[in-house]
Amino acid sequence: MAPLNMIEAQGLAKAYGETQALAGVDFAVGAGSILGVLGPNGAGKTTAVRILTTLATPDAGHATVAGFDIATQAAEVRRRIGVAAQDATLDGALTGRQNLVLVGELSRMGRAASRERGSELLERFELTFAADRVLKGYSGGMRRRLDLAASLMTRPPVLFLDEPTTGLDPTSRVRVWEIVRELVGEGVTVLLTTQYLEEADSLADQIVVIDHGRVIAEGTPRELKEASKGARLVVTLAAAHDGAVGALQQLVDGRVHVSDDGRQLDAAVDNAPGLATVVVRALDAAGVLVDNIEVRPPSLDDVFFSLTGHAAADAGTDMDAGDDLNRELEGVSR
Amino acid sequence: MTTTTLSPLASSPARSLGHLGDRITDVWALTRRNLIHVAREPMQLSDVTVQPVLFTLLFIYVFGSGIPIHGGSYKDFVLAGLLILNLTTSTIGTAVGLSTDLHEGVIDRFRTLPMWRAAVLVGRSMSDLLSAAVCVVIVALTGLAVGWRPTASVPSVIGGFAIALFFSYALSWASACFGLNSKGPESAQSLGFIFLFPLAFISNSLVPTAGMPGWLQTIANWNPVSAVTAAARHLFGNPNPSGSVQAWPMQHPVEASLLWSVAIVVVCAPLAAYFFRRQTAE
Predict the structure, then answer these.
(1) B33 with A94: Cβ contact below 8 A
(2) Other Cβ atoms closer than 10 A to A209
(3) Helix axis angle, B74-90 to B119-146, nearest 10°
(4) What is the pLDDT of residue A322?
(5) What is this model's ipTM?
(6) pTM score, whole prediction
(7) How far apart are CA A210 and CA A36, in angstroms?
(8) Taking the alpha carbons of B106, B107, B112, B118 in that order, is the dihedral positive or negative?
(9) What is the DSSP pairing of strand A5-16 with strand A81-84?
(10) Chain A: nearest CA to B111, how far in angstroms?
(11) Contacts of residue B104 in chain A, CB cutoff 8 Å?
(12) Residue B16: predicted pLDDT
């Protein structure tokens, strides 16, 4: 019988030199579901994945994958996981097909079965046209898809995807999402790390928000949004007006952000009944003409902001270009 | 013996026999992978193809004219030396190859697979053994083309080549230790040269040791490269001035060569496994 939780982590901690990459992290992933591990660069996401995939040993805490202890039954764990890491972990000098066959053979699938499964996955990931091309000539999106294909060679019941769409164009990103949903439909358990709130929102059943090596929130995407009871107020003015910020500031606790052209103001608010009316009256009293007013439910971005006090992607690197830097940055607390 | 000495990387000990088939599969898969690399960039092979031809011609025609050899010609004397010299310096490829593997993401992929982790090392040593075999063929053919003639029986000559290859295999484990401790492929290369060049040259490979200063003669006579060179000369039936040197390895070159080679594997293979584990531990 399959264990109830395919991944369980308890008190995982790991330091790299002076930096505490993980400072005691707990989570569990039920069979056939997706856990989204959300956090900025350097939050500890990759460290968690490296520990759970037996690449790194934790300083404290323990974990099981597919019911096997990562520390004492690493070989059993390795037989049951597929890993698509953040940075290229395929052989650049081999062709796409050779890479998949190598992974299959080293997973003891046998050469014939490896070839067959390889062709099947190349087909599924729309890479057949490039199957016999050396990897060096692949685009970023093609490499990511091949990495994903490699992680699926053995039809593993547990899949670790470390930022599977970082650096991908929107079309490829959506394609990867579709594949992940298909896999979960087939009963695969997925742990997926991401810096993209949208990705976690759209894919994950459960989300764990990590910052500075700690879990700072967890729940379903819906629960997380509800937990942050605030809303976002966005007011568009007919023209920039000096009195607008002052008038609005009296109604909100936090800062009022003003757009560059001075026409759009936004602020975090408590969503009280009649809020829009109150705002319009206050602005009218100040002689400000309002074009549009909107009270938005919180997005995960807002949730993240309210939890961490900083935006998801403000770790100082461009999200897309940060790909290669990520491993160095992981665990470098700011 | 080698199976047990290589097992520190295995996930659980004392199950070697049951896993032997799987392990051979892993080693073969990785050996093939390394050979595909070579096929993609044939220049990687230059140290076992172009360099041996160049060295052979250079030494025979440029230096050979000025070095008299008692009891035969310089080309008959030097060919075994050039063979061992080329094999010795080309083991640098093991250091560079492993260092490259270690510094690329692919090693992380391997480490999440249920494979035998030491297969990375053993596979490398196998593919390097095959390039060494290419080197042997190239040197022999170049030698034959310029007039080198072995005078011993065919099995004896083959024995000479086999001893040379075994030594080269052993040395590649030493080279692996350097590669695994280097900061990258470039530093593995220079580290390898610093170690392998003196080893190759402070020997009887290119000149008889008798003309060297006394202390250097002692080093040269006890250098494993000299033992293997003397053994090959002896087995090829070529002039072997070291035969008259009163040092045990020069008196018993075949035994000394085998002892050296076995000793190097026994020490360096587990050491390489240890370094590999240490470098990939996190």
Answers:
(1) yes
(2) 24
(3) 160
(4) 35
(5) 0.84
(6) 0.81
(7) 10
(8) positive
(9) unpaired
(10) 7
(11) 91-92
(12) 54
